[in-house]
Amino acid sequence: MNARSQMGKPKKQKLDGGEEMNEGCKSLSNLPDALIGKILGLLPTKEAIRTSILSKRWEYLWTSVPNLDFTQAMLDKRTSLVNAVERALLLRGPADIKRFSLSFPVLSDASRVRSWISATVRRNVEVLSICLYGFKEPLKEPNLLPCSLFTSSTLKELELDLPCIFKVPCTVCFSSLRSLTLTLLVFSDDCSTQKLFSGCPVLEELTLQDCNWANLKFVSICAPKLLTLSINEMDLQYPRGSDGCQIMVFSGSLKDLSYVGRFQNDYCFYNLSSLTEAYICHNATKSLRHLIYRFYKLLTALSSVRNLTICHTFFEDFQTNAPELLDYMPLFNDLTTLILESSPVDIRSKGLLRILQNCPCLQTLIFCEGISLSSDYAKDDGVLEPWPPCFLASLQLIKVNTFYGDLEEIHALEVLLKNAKVLEKMSITCSNNFQGAPEKKRDVNKQLSDVPKGSESCEIVLG
Prior knowledge:
The chain is an alpha/beta fold. The chain contains 13 helices and 24 strands. It has helices spanning 3-8, 23-29, 33-40, 45-50, 78-90, 110-122, 190-198, 289-301, 313-321, 350-357, 389-393, 407-419, 438-449; strands at 12-14, 20-22, 67-71, 99-107, 127-135, 157-161, 165-166, 179-183, 186-187, 205-209, 218-222, 228-232, 246-250, 256-261, 266-270, 277-282, 307-311, 337-341, 345-346, 364-367, 371-372, 397-403, 425-430, 459-462. A 15-stranded parallel sheet has the order 3-4-5-6-8-10-12-14-16-17-18-20-22-23-24, with helices on one face. The protein has a three-stranded parallel sheet with strand order 11-13-15. The chain has a two-stranded antiparallel ribbon with strand order 1-2. It starts with a helix and ends with a strand.
C-alpha cells in the first residue's frame, strides 16, 4: 500500500465505549450534548432514533428532541412503536416537548395511551396531534384523554382524530389554544360539548371533520377571536329520521369560512361582518326542501362576504325545491369575486341571474367547470333578463375554465361579451381536446373576435 492511499484513509479511534470511529464521527461526537440535540431535532423522529446505535453516549440523546412524531407506518411493528414512545417520554430528562404526534392502534392499551398524553402535558407540550384507531368497541370506549389535557396552559394547537364517544371532564380551560381540529368524534351530549367550546377563549382556527352531532340538540360556539372555521361533513351519516343538531356560531372576527356537506346539521351564524372568504359546497344525493332552507339561512348570513365560492347546483335546487326563495335572495353589496363550481353553468339559470342581480359591486366572475346556454335561448337577442347591475358598472374579469369549444359554449360566451359593458378581460382555459388542434383554437378566436361586445376594450385570452 503506497503512502498516498494511506493518507486518504481517515484514522480510526476508540469511543468511550470501545467502538471504533473515524475522524469525522469523532468530530461530531465531541460536540456538546445540547448541540447534538439541536442537530437531532432537525431529523425526522425515525432517523433520530437510528442514531442511538452509534455509541452508548448517543443511545438516549434522541429522546430529548423537542419534536416527536410516532406513527405505525414509521416503525415496522406495534411493539417497536410502543417501546419508542415510552423511551422518549421516560428517558428525556427535564426537556420540554414542543410538538408531539401519535398515530396508534389502541386495541387494549387505552390506559397506556392516557399515560402518554399525560406525560406530554407535564412536559408543557405546545402542539399535540393524536390519531387513534383499532378500538375494540369504539362507541363504548372509556375516555382516552386525561383530565390534565383539558386544563393545559401551554397547548397552542390540538388535533384529535378519535372515532369514538367524546366526553370532556368537568373543567375545560385551554387558555392558550389557538387551533383546534376534531375528526370523527361522536359528541356525547349537549352539556359536555358546550363545555369544550366554551373553554377555548382565544381560539383562532377551528376545523370539524365528519364529527357526529346526532346525540345533541343544541350547541353554541362563541369564539370572539375565531378567524378561520372549516366544516367538512361529506361522509357524515345520520340514522333515518334524524334532524341533526342546531349549532349557533358567534364570531365577530371570522375571516374565512368553509362548509362541505349535506346540511344534516342546522348551522346558524351571527355577526359575520368581517368575513372575507367563504366556500360552500354540498354533495347531497337528494336536495330536500328543509335542507334548501338551511342553505338559504347560511347564504343570508354570508351577505357581507367579499369572495364567495359556491356550487352552482344550489341554484337549480332552489328552482326545483324552493322557488319561492328566489325572490328573497340576500344582497351581497360587498361581494367582489364569485366562483362557481361543480358542473357547467347555464348562464340563463334563474338562480344564477338572481344572485348576480344582488351583487352590484361584483368585479370577478369565475366558472370553474365551464358554461352552457339552454337551447331555448340560443337564437334570441342575447340580452340577459334581468340585466345584472354589475354587468353595467363593475364586472371587469370573467374566467371560463374547461372550455370544449362546443357551439352552445360559444353562444354562452357571446351572451356574456355582449352584456358585460365594462369588461376588461375574458380569460378562457381550453380543455384537453384542444391539444394538438391549433386550427380549432384559431377558429374559436376568430368567432369570438367577430362577436359584438358591450365593452370594446375587452381583451379575450384563449389559453
